[in-house]
Amino acid sequence: MHMINKDGIGFRSPPLHGEAGSSACMSSCSARSGQQRLLQQPHWPAEESECPACESPAVYELELDPENTGFIAVENISSLLEHHELQLDPSKLEMLFALVQSNEEGQMSSKRSSSFRRAIANGRRSLQREILLDETGLGLYKRFVRYVAYEILPCETDRRWYFHQNRFCPPPIFMAIITVIQILVFLCYGAMLNKWVLQTYQLDFMKSPLVYHPGHRAQVWRFFTYMFMHVGLEQLGFNALLQLMIGVPLEMVHGILRISLLYMAGVLAGSLTVSITDMRAPVVGGSGGVYALCSAHLANVVMNWAGMRCPYKLLRMILALVCMSSEVGRAVWLRFSPPLPSSGPQPSFMAHLSGAVVGISMGLLILRSYEESLQRQCSWWVILLSFATFFVFAIFWNIFAYDLLGVQIPPPP
């Protein structure tokens, strides 16, 4: 049996079949009859015996985690490596011991870390030649989970891991809640103004306390709440569709914390970028967060092109790029179109571009770190430091630059 840990270190148990024939096989099976399988998952089917001379499956029952806490003591793993009868190269054994001893917490976990449990799971999956698409007899929800796995994850190992450990609770509620609020706000203003497109031409719309306006930049909440307002039905429909089609699957796979962080980082970066580069323009729409999600997903697909198994991926990639470019073009046209005298400058398009930058940087790292700890990656801290530097710079810019540069801001509505 092959076992592969997360760092690619592999070893195998004593061979079950050799040139000595069935007697050697029986001897091998007898020798391992007292051994027990590591961390057997109850929802995984028991593997059939690799030896036809055995009457029962070769199942190990060793409980390194008897209370199912998700943690295994490092000393137990060390003892396993020392006493388990495995044919290990000395160099690989030394590397395994170094990996275990480098753990400062004294225990290894399955929760977003380089885990011994996941190493065992990877080893089990390497034995299963069939791919996840060959699973039969699945219910509607499990088929949807399998679809999401192939849409989001580039590695068959990660797909099987996600498929088997997925639970509906907690559900992907963040993107759903954001989308519902955006729709409700749009319906309220549409009914109040009796206008469903180009609402930014209406003065009452721009008076909303949710819209970011440079004249109201001291009201900090506007740097976030502008994501609930939209120019019209065309922008809302585009954003809501992408949030549900891409945001929800991403949230199912990577969790609410990571995807909400990515989305809100795109939203905040959008308003801050506009306050620096387009100082007279307001901002509306959730495009900063949407473009952060979409850019991260598309970049992840490109970086793992060979591993992605989603159908028609080239056609879908082209279609996504055309749609995103068209939305940016619409925003550019609206920004530089002659405004009505009473409406003032139209919303900026820079939030789209800054959201894409957030997605390609922070978002790509998040999506490539499925079930891995971000805090242990140097690139994660470099990205956080870069965003913190930009955030501090934007604060000072908004406090001092408008007066120093003599920017004439249109009077806020």
Automatic annotation (TrEMBL):
<feature type="transmembrane region" description="Helical">
    <location>
        <begin position="379"/>
        <end position="400"/>
    </location>
</feature>
<dbReference type="InterPro" id="IPR051739">
    <property type="entry name" value="Rhomboid_IM_Serine_Proteases"/>
</dbReference>
<feature type="transmembrane region" description="Helical">
    <location>
        <begin position="318"/>
        <end position="336"/>
    </location>
</feature>
<feature type="transmembrane region" description="Helical">
    <location>
        <begin position="173"/>
        <end position="192"/>
    </location>
</feature>
<keyword id="KW-0645">Protease</keyword>
<keyword id="KW-0378">Hydrolase</keyword>
<comment type="similarity">
    <text>Belongs to the peptidase S54 family.</text>
</comment>
<feature type="transmembrane region" description="Helical">
    <location>
        <begin position="288"/>
        <end position="306"/>
    </location>
</feature>
<dbReference type="GO" id="GO:0016020">
    <property type="term" value="C:membrane"/>
</dbReference>
<keyword id="KW-0812">Transmembrane</keyword>
<feature type="domain" description="Peptidase S54 rhomboid">
    <location>
        <begin position="218"/>
        <end position="368"/>
    </location>
</feature>
<feature type="transmembrane region" description="Helical">
    <location>
        <begin position="348"/>
        <end position="367"/>
    </location>
</feature>
<protein>
    <recommendedName>
        <fullName>Rhomboid-related protein 1</fullName>
        <ecNumber>3.4.21.105</ecNumber>
    </recommendedName>
</protein>
<keyword id="KW-0720">Serine protease</keyword>
<dbReference type="GO" id="GO:0004252">
    <property type="term" value="F:serine-type endopeptidase activity"/>
</dbReference>
<feature type="transmembrane region" description="Helical">
    <location>
        <begin position="256"/>
        <end position="276"/>
    </location>
</feature>
<feature type="transmembrane region" description="Helical">
    <location>
        <begin position="223"/>
        <end position="244"/>
    </location>
</feature>
<dbReference type="Pfam" id="PF01694">
    <property type="entry name" value="Rhomboid"/>
</dbReference>
<dbReference type="InterPro" id="IPR035952">
    <property type="entry name" value="Rhomboid-like_sf"/>
</dbReference>
<dbReference type="GO" id="GO:0006508">
    <property type="term" value="P:proteolysis"/>
</dbReference>
<keyword id="KW-1133">Transmembrane helix</keyword>
<dbReference type="InterPro" id="IPR022764">
    <property type="entry name" value="Peptidase_S54_rhomboid_dom"/>
</dbReference>
<comment type="function">
    <text>May be involved in regulated intramembrane proteolysis and the subsequent release of functional polypeptides from their membrane anchors.</text>
</comment>
<keyword id="KW-0472">Membrane</keyword>
